[in-house]
Design goal:
With 291 residues, the protein is of the alpha/beta class. The strands form four sheets. Strands 3-2-1-10 form a four-stranded parallel sheet. Helix 3 crosses helix 5. The chain contains eight helices and twelve strands. It is globular. A hairpin with a 3-residue loop joins strand 4 and strand 5. It folds into two domains: 184 residues, HAD superfamily/HAD-like (Rossmann fold), CATH 3.40.50; 89 residues, Hypothetical Protein, Haloacid Dehalogenase-like Hydrolase, Chain: A, domain 2, CATH 3.30.1240.20.
């Protein structure tokens, strides 16, 4: 039995910058009745409020939920209300250096769109985020901008050289996140281990883009969970009330063979699955059930 299930947000529990749908809310409520759950994302706290908390999760399950905004540089738990346990905030000088180099990379790479929706370079306190088309760009426009990650990988390579003292990671659909060195989603997972007193063998992680260079999910899965993503094969989970995930949802689906979660994959009730990491390691179907 796994005692903690960790999810990425955009592209996993919800479409980019969008609220979870009703089905996902019901599934998350179900999972929270019998195990701990954490959600980690590059988005800041207001984005978690919009995408997750505004959807009316059942109050009885909230004490089992941990939220880690800005790639785990912040950590929130629930008692009678949401409480911030820590925040790895940047100094003004660190922010200035990050913003300066991001703007330089934007200019050098020609990433200057004709139209933007919201801030392109955003200060999230503990993280500076580049969003190519702006924070509020329509989802379809974002999907079209960098579908194969190639544009953002160029920016990442440039920033790795110009500001090597910081961590640079791909995030979301059009984003690049910059934090203090070593402060990334894998760091957030380590903090979960420390704060919740859960051994990594009792954890599972699920996110999109679980392949080399694909956002932060691949690094988390390889470093923190029971998975060998390089040897994964197609698999499916069936059980009572099995259902099919459709491609537009993007939920729990990786774009490559490393996490062969294609449209034909079926997920077992009572929870959307039997989580990628264990299924890939054992190469067998597994359904996580309540005790």
């Amino acid at each position: 039995m796994k005692h903690l299930v960790v999810f990425d947000l955009d592209g996993t529990l919800a479409a980019s910058k969008s609220a979870m749908d009703n089905e996902m809310v019901n599934l998350l409520d179900s999972l929270l009745t019998f195990t701990k759950v954490a959600i980690i994302s590059g988005g800041d706290w207001p984005q978690f409020e919009k995408q997750v908390l505004s959807r009316g999760l059942a109050p009885k399950g909230l004490p089992n939920l941990s939220l880690l905004p800005t790639c785990g540089t912040k950590f929130y738990t629930y008692g009678t209300d949401w409480e911030k346990l820590y925040s790895e905030d940047l100094t003004d000088n660190e922010k200035l250096r990050m913003v300066t180099e991001i703007n330089s990379a934007i200019k050098s790479l020609g990433f200057i769109p004709k139209k933007t929706w919201g801030e392109v370079v955003e200060d999230r306190g503990s993280q500076i985020t580049f969003s190519a088309l702006g924070q509020d760009a329509p989802l379809q426009k974002k999907k079209e901008w960098d579908p194969d990650f190639s544009k953002r990988k160029k920016m990442q390579e440039m920033l790795d050289k110009s500001i090597p003292e910081f961590s640079v990671r791909l995030g979301g659909t059009t984003s690049v996140d910059v934090t203090k060195a070593g402060i990334d989603k894998a760091y957030g997972i380590k903090k979960l281990v420390e704060i919740l007193h859960v051994d990594k063998g009792e954890m599972m992680f699920m996110g999109d883009a679980i392949f080399p260079g694909g956002k932060s999910s691949y690094a988390i899965a390889n470093r923190m969970c029971d998975a060998n993503l390089e040897k994964s094969t197609e698999w499916k989970v069936t059980g009572n009330g099995a259902r099919k995930i459709n491609p537009p949802v993007g939920a729990l689906r990786s774009p490559t063979r490393y996490a062969a979660f294609q449209s034909q994959v079926h997920l077992g009730h009572p929870w959307i699955t039997a989580f990628i990491s264990t299924a890939q390691k054992t190469r067998r179907a597994l359904v996580l059930r309540p005790r």
